[in-house]
């Protein structure tokens, strides 16, 4: 049998999860046989548990407290609150734990048990100290056993005081006395307290009817002129905590007891009045709302009868027609809207089809049919906006200005698709915003990175539950014009799944020949996207499908050199961080030298996102210093920069030199980088060629081509023709943990092998890039801007580039080519002439 909880309705039940112990100032323990002898002494008039179960309907008469009370009684602990002599309440106890106690109680003629409040003590925590000295003797009536519980009516009789213990183990048996309660009913103070308590009870009765039931039980047993029971009754009907009530129970002088009861009663009155006020307020609000609802319904009926009101269906139709008044809706779309409005007029408002049709019309009428914004085709304004928002990127700005200038003659710049390609953090998204601001157009951006469902582009069909239009229709609804600037961010990260191919869905969107009649599956009407200026962003072109890439005009953002980063930090990043933290420039003084050190030692990537993070670290550390040291200003210089950012992450790149060592130039998604290549002769026992450095398939092919070309042309370049016949050569690209691939290292690898064979080192800062064929042709490569920036970052100002990339180099801005000596090579002989003379 499992334990049962207290009966919440009465707050006086026995906790079934706790056991019982006892308390006495000087407990006297007796043998177990003395308790058994006591039970035998009263066994003649006994009744057992079976009698009570079978005779459960029998109602015992309520006995008077003046009856003879036993000197020895069994104890029952309670935990919520103490039991008072003035109470008559049902109790529910756990059958498994207290079955033996109740059976022995049934063997007694008086059927009286002692109830003692033990507080929150658990089963294992009960001890002699847990039991109070004063408890209440109760008469047990109508005992019934059901399943795992024992129920009975407890009639409070009189206080008892534990004299000594007869049994420490359950069933607990104690010898008790019944102390007298000193009272002077004629005393003026006592009468005053009694009147105050009676008045308090009168205040409680109208507030809560439950107090009236308690009062009936009390009046059936006691006279209102008895101050002792009156105080007990007043304490029993309060919701005070158990310890406070036990203090009242243990107070024998009636006058003192009444002094303790009166504050508890007063508090109960205040709580009951507050609860009553809250209930009245809630009821008043509910009644007011119900009244308003009924009046509104009556008003609707009256207006409908008089023909001066409309129902929900008519309101919806009027709302949709009102939206179309200022729109220039194409004829085919207007025809569809009229059909749906007619359909809406015959549907019941509660039908699912009504909701579907209403949502469809809501979308159709919310779109900005025929509404366009005027373009600001002012080149001076465009330059001002671009220069204000961006430092550097001169070639990108010029390309955008050309793009806008072309639109001036056409009359608009719609139907164009611009693709901004560059490493992370170079400002692709912000350039798109600047284009929109320069044109005076609304801007809407959504990322297509990771998009796997083509319905995100072309919408869901209306047959599906929860169908919605695609992102483009949602963009039109938000910007409220038909010619916004829409940015498709991270277009190189589109996904594919069983739900479709979003990249293929974009073909119709981004093709000027097709997007004049773009069809969204949800709307199922043709829309004109030709006035939209689409701006796409990507980090790399490799993952963009060819047909999609063919529809876009590419603008590359290669990244920033140190000088450009300094300007960006001064004009944009640093002021933005200070403004965000509500700091003035005078509070944190960042020197120019320290800013350059941050760029060179902590944020060397192509973009400026890492630079912004490092500057934010400086601001955070500086604010801590100002608060902890009570400083007004903080100066950040080269000398104390490490206090804010720690040791530099990057060291100055040292150009490797030596026989067989060449510095190549590579392009990565993070920008340009120098790529040292080492060739070494391992031994002369046998011919062999080994590659290391985690090279991809393309670079491995380049290395094999370089090895074959060098092997076949050693004599032509003045090297020992038999060098490789007995040489095991190892070609290595350092930083082997980093994957490397791409068709731009052939020239560098050939130069490294030729340097090894000629025993001639390259002793000057020189970098090169280009792919080589078996016949010695130098092929063009990409990323010339990024590679030149990487060379300058490593203080290399002499580079070798393929002749076919001359046009790319000449398009670079002057501040990148200033001080750089460049050699263009059409065949490898041109490279060898520059390197070896």
UniProtKB/TrEMBL annotation:
Outline the extent of the Lon N-terminal domain.
73-269
Give the residue range of the signal peptide: none
Q: Which InterPro entries match?
A: AAA+_ATPase, ATPase_AAA_core, Lon_bac, Lon_bac/euk-typ, Lon_lid, Lon_proteolytic, Lon_Prtase, Lon_prtase_N
GO MF assignments: serine-type endopeptidase activity
Write down the Pfam families for this protein, in alphabetical order: AAA, Lon_C, Lon_lid, LON_substr_bdg
What does its record list under induction? By heat shock.
Cellular location(s): Cytoplasm
Q: Return the EC number.
A: 3.4.21.53
Which reaction(s) are listed as its catalytic activity? Hydrolysis of proteins in presence of ATP
- Does the UniProt entry include the keyword Hydrolase? yes
List, alphabetically, the PANTHER family matched: LON PROTEASE, LON PROTEASE HOMOLOG, MITOCHONDRIAL
Question: What HAMAP family is this protein classified in?
Answer: lon_bact
Q: What is the recorded function of this protein according to its Swiss-Prot or TrEMBL entry?
A: ATP-dependent serine protease that mediates the selective degradation of mutant and abnormal proteins as well as certain short-lived regulatory proteins. Required for cellular homeostasis and for survival from DNA damage and developmental changes induced by stress. Degrades polypeptides processively to yield small peptide fragments that are 5 to 10 amino acids long. Binds to DNA in a double-stranded, site-specific manner.
Protein name per its UniProtKB record: Lon protease
């Amino acid at each position: 049998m499992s334990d049962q909880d207290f009966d919440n309705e009465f707050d006086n039940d026995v906790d079934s999860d706790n056991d019982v112990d006892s308390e006495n100032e000087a407990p006297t323990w007796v043998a177990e046989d003395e308790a058994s002898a006591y039970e035998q002494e009263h066994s003649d008039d006994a009744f057992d548990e079976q009698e009570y179960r079978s005779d459960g309907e029998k109602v015992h008469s309520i006995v008077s407290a003046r009856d003879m009370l036993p000197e020895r009684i069994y104890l029952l602990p309670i935990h919520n609150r103490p039991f008072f002599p003035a109470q008559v309440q049902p109790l529910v106890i756990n059958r498994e734990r207290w079955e033996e106690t109740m059976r022995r109680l049934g063997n007694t003629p008086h059927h009286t048990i002692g109830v003692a409040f033990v507080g929150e003590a658990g089963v294992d925590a009960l001890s002699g100290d847990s039991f109070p000295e004063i408890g209440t003797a109760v008469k047990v009536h109508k005992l019934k056993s059901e399943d795992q519980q024992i129920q009975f009516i407890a009639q409070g009789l009189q206080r008892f005081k534990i004299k000594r213990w007869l049994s420490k183990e359950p069933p607990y048996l104690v010898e008790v006395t019944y102390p007298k309660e000193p009272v002077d009913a004629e005393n003026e103070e006592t009468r005053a307290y009694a009147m105050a308590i009676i008045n308090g009870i009168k205040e409680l009765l109208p507030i809560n009817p439950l107090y009236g039931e308690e009062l009936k039980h009390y009046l059936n047993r006691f006279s209102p002129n008895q101050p002792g029971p009156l105080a007990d009754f007043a304490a029993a009907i309060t919701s005070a905590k158990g310890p406070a009530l036990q203090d009242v129970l243990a107070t024998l002088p009636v006058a003192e007891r009444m002094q303790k009861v009166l504050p508890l009663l007063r508090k109960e009155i205040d709580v009951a009045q507050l609860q009553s006020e809250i209930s009245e307020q809630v009821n008043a609000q509910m009644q007011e709302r119900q009244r308003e609802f009924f009046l509104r319904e009556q008003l609707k009926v009256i207006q409908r009868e008089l023909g001066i009101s409309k129902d929900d269906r008519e309101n919806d139709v009027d709302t949709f027609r009102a939206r179309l008044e200022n729109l220039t809706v194409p004829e085919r779309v207007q025809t569809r809207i009229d059909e749906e409005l007619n359909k809406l007029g015959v549907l019941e408002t509660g039908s699912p089809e009504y909701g579907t049709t209403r949502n469809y019309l809501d979308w159709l009428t919310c779109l900005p049919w025929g509404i366009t914004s005027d373009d600001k085709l002012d080149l001076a304004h465009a330059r001002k906006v671009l220069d204000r928002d961006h430092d550097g990127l001169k070639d990108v700005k010029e390309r955008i200005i050309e793009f806008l200038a072309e639109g001036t003659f056409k009359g608009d710049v719609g139907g164009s698709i611009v693709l901004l390609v560059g490493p992370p953090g170079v400002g692709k998204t912000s350039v798109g915003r600047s284009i929109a601001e320069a044109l005076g157009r609304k801007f809407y951006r959504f990322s297509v990175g990771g998009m796997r469902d083509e319905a995100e582009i072309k919408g869901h069909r209306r047959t599906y539950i929860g169908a919605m239009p695609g992102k483009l229709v949602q963009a039109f609804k938000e910007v409220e014009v038909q010619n916004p600037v829409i940015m498709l961010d991270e277009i190189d990260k589109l996904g594919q799944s069983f739900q479709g191919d979003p990249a293929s869905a974009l073909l119709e969107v981004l093709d000027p020949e097709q997007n004049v009649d773009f069809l969204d599956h949800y709307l199922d009407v043709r829309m004109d996207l030709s006035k939209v200026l689409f701006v796409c962003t990507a980090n790399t072109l490799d993952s963009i499908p060819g047909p999609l890439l063919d529809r876009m005009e590419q603008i590359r953002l290669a990244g920033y050199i140190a000088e450009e980063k300094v300007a960006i930090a001064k004009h944009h990043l640093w002021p933005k961080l200070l403004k965000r933290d509500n700091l003035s420039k005078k509070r944190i003084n960042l020197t120019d030298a320290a800013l350059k050190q941050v760029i060179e030692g902590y944020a060397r990537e192509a973009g400026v996102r890492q630079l912004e993070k490092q500057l934010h670290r400086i601001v955070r550390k500086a604010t801590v210093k100002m608060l902890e040291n009570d400083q007004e200003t903080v100066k950040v210089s080269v000398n104390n920069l490490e206090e804010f950012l720690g040791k530099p992450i990057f060291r100055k790149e040292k150009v490797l030199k030596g026989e067989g060592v060449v510095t190549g130039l590579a392009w990565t998604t993070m920008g340009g980088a120098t790529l040292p290549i080492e060739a070494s002769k391992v031994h002369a026992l046998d011919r062999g060629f080994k590659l290391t450095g985690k090279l991809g398939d393309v670079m491995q092919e380049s290395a094999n081509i370089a090895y074959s070309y060098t092997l076949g042309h050693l004599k032509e370049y003045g090297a020992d023709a038999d060098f490789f016949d007995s040489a095991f050569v190892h070609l290595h690209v350092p930083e082997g943990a980093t994957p490397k691939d791409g068709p731009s290292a052939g020239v560098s690898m050939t130069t490294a092998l030729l340097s090894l064979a000629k025993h001639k080192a390259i002793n000057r800062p020189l970098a090169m890039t280009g792919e080589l064929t078996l016949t010695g042709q130098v092929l063009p490569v990409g990323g010339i801007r990024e590679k030149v920036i990487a060379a300058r970052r490593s203080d290399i100002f002499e580079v070798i580039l393929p002749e076919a990339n001359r046009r790319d180099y000449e398009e670079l801005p002057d501040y990148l080519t200033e001080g750089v000596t460049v050699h263009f090579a059409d065949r490898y002989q041109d490279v060898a002439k520059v390197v070896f003379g």
